[in-house]
Amino acid sequence: MLATPSRRSFALAVNLARRPGHLNPALVLARSLQSSAASESPAPPVLLDIKGSKATLTLNRPRTGNSLDTDLLTLLATHLDELRANDAVRTVVLTATGKYFCTGMNLGAKGTQGSSEEQFERASRMFRTVEEFPKPMIAVIQGSCYGGGNGLAMACDIRIALADITFTLSEVKIGFIPAIISRYIVREWGVAKAREAMLTARSIPVAELHAVSAVHYVEPDLTSAHSRVDEVVAQLVQGAPDAQADVKKLVNSAATESAESHWAVIKAFFVDMMRPNTEGKYGLECFQKKVKPDWGSLKVK
Questions:
Q1: At CB < 8 A and 24+ separation, what contacts does 261-269 make?
Q2: With b meaning 16 or more CB within 10 Å and e meaning fewer, what string describes 218-247?
Q3: pLDDT tier, 270 (very low <50, low <70, confident <90, very high otherwise)
Q4: For the sheet containing 91-96, what is the strand order?
Q5: pLDDT tens digit string along 211-257?
Q6: Which residues are bridge partners to 57 per DSSP?
Q7: In this structure, which of 32, 171, 189, 265 has its CB flanked by the most CB atoms within 10 Å?
Q8: For the chain, how far is it from start to end, CA to CA, in angstroms?
Q9: What whole-number distance in Å separates Cα of residue 184 and Cα of residue 154?
Q10: Dist. CA 46–CA 61, nearest whole Å
Q11: Contact of 142 with 162, CB cutoff 8 Å
């Protein structure tokens, strides 16, 4: 791998080129270094890595606390669309680099986020994309969450967090409310915990959320967290993909819809589940034959 040209090497080359009688190759070198440095592209705000049936999305703006600016939101949505269409991917892990998992909306980016309506549409679309993603999503929360970062974590299906992090809904301190993410905070934390956290804006230790199952696993370090991910992924790939997608819809419906509309959802899922040529038919045949289903090779719908 070639070393990245530094400012010092560039300055040295320029000084050499300016010395009386010095050969032009130094000037050529200086210009080459300058061109090389200028051509370096910044790291993308979201990294994507696929290994086998597991995809990992990593928020990669540590210097801004992985705040949800336009570039990050757009790339995250793009990657999720790609993974939705990739049948080889069964599970998606969402994590981050740096001290924070996510610090919410980028309130410091004046004039670059669009109108309030545009901001709402962009942010709510991303949260809904995560919530409605058909494959199981695991949040590995390696750092503390603020504002919308809490919503992003809670929109995922399974949450693994490090023991020393906190969750803070600090919006009221600046005259805001956690509007978009309230759907996920109230649903996952419970009404009483969500109300108290939003009103006081205090930092909630991970142990409190673990006690109400808003965080499923608490690990002492990243090594343990990734081992837990492997364990959970091994469990998830044993399930039928379409059945898991329907489970997500079913549970979300139960948590958010009225009783009448939820029964309509249940009926639709039941009728679909019982039709011929479905995962249920294949799974039942495997059960009767006492063999393990190979969901990866099954193509239905």
A1: none
A2: bbeeeeebbebbeebbeebbebbbbbbbbe
A3: low
A4: 46-51, 54-59, 91-96, 137-141, 158-162, 217-219
A5: 999 999 999 999 999 999 999 999 999 999 999 999 999 998 888 76
A6: 48, 94
A7: 189
A8: 46
A9: 6
A10: 8
A11: yes
How far apart, in Å, are the Cα atoms of 220 and each of 93, 163, 169?
A: 18, 5, 24
Residue type, 119: Q
CA nearest 147: which of 188, 100, 111? Answer: 100
Across 174-200, b (16+ Cβ under 10 Å) vs e yields eeeebebbebbbbbbbeeebbeebbee
* Tokens 């336009």, residue located: 70
Q: Tokens 């993909």 correspond to what residue?
A: 241
Q: Which residue has the tokens 């695991």?
A: 138
CA dihedral 67, 73, 79, 80 (to 10 degrees): 100
Q: Note the pLDDT tens digit of each residue in 155-211.
A: 999 999 999 999 999 988 888 888 889 989 999 999 999 999 999 999 999 999 999
pTM of the full structure? 0.79
